[in-house]
Amino acid sequence: MKFETLGFSDLILESLGYMGFEEATPIQEQAIPHIFEGRDILASAQTGTGKTAAFMLPILDMISRDVPDSTTALIIVPTRELALQIDQEIQAFSYTTNISSIPLYGGGDGQDWETQKRALESGVHVVVATPGKLKSFIQNKYLDCGSIKYLILDEADRMLDIGFYDDIISIIENLPKKRQNLLFSATMPDKIIKLSKQVLSDPVQIKIAISKPNENILQASFLVYDTQKVELLRHLIKDKPKYSSIIIFSSTKKNVSRIVSALRSEGMSAQAISSDLAQKDREAMLNDFKARKVRILVATDVISRGIDIKEISLVINFDVPRDAEDYVHRIGRTARAEASGVAITLINPDDMRYFHQIEQLIGKDVIKLNVPKELGESPAWDVSRRKKSDSFNSRKKSVKSRNFKKHKKKKD
Hints:
It contains 15 helices and 14 strands. It is an alpha/beta fold.
């Protein structure tokens, strides 16, 4: 379906024309008409489906028809990076209008706070914010929520995973009762359903099936012991100049630091990025990576969603993500814009069953390779293996159960 058939004004269509947007994606095609009708939306859609345009384009269109002098739309997101990205997209979508926006996020210095405060005082139409920072601005009365007509919760599942539930509810209590609510989430666990019942009114439910990894991504994995991982990384990256832009994902900040140290000791250009960094440092590092000043970025999942960096040639999962959908998000950083890419995952014995779940989700078996002989033997593929802690807890429960039964029998 073409955008021109969805009821947009000439101003928004002109912006879309400049950007080369013609055909709507499935989430846009399904959500936009209902948003124009004023309906609340509960949508399941992952990063890369065009969901930002799905909720932002109709909101911008409605604002542009009668530009107000107050904040009208509030978008709440889990991370600073996503807030910045959505704000950049808003600026592009509203290029031909007089609509203004600002991202509010933590992690910066006092100057960032003052800049954001002055922008709010001067008046903006759309605010994109992380929950903690938004709550601070509301409590200090720098943001008047009385004029909010549109509330969007984006990547709601990630916000609840981080622990923002109470902040979100607190923020919503400051909003007008009469408003349009749009909730977008990559997954729909029970906690999202619970939140939707508190926030949404008779919502239209939209479900876009999780996209399979891009066919242009060559997926492979290595069966490894933890002691072999760092050396295998060196082996995979060293003397391979065609991999000019590499992201290595790890689930722990401790491993991120260890990986960077090991790669730098080999003379490789590597930087670490995690939630511990100040916002300005993270932005500078991402800009250096985009500009090819840094070849290797080692990161936690802070950049696995919502960050669009083109021409990444290699993604390496230092460990297997526990959530199968996070695997799709991670490797989706490569092979963007019709390019090709490579995604490699290091699988230790404890992670084999988690990787099996990933294969079930994506509907294919990923090739499994042994480590080079000079690194030793690889573990055998065994998806039935359970972590020692799991077995220990299971035995504890079993012993506890038997003791309870003995005690109950004596008592009887």
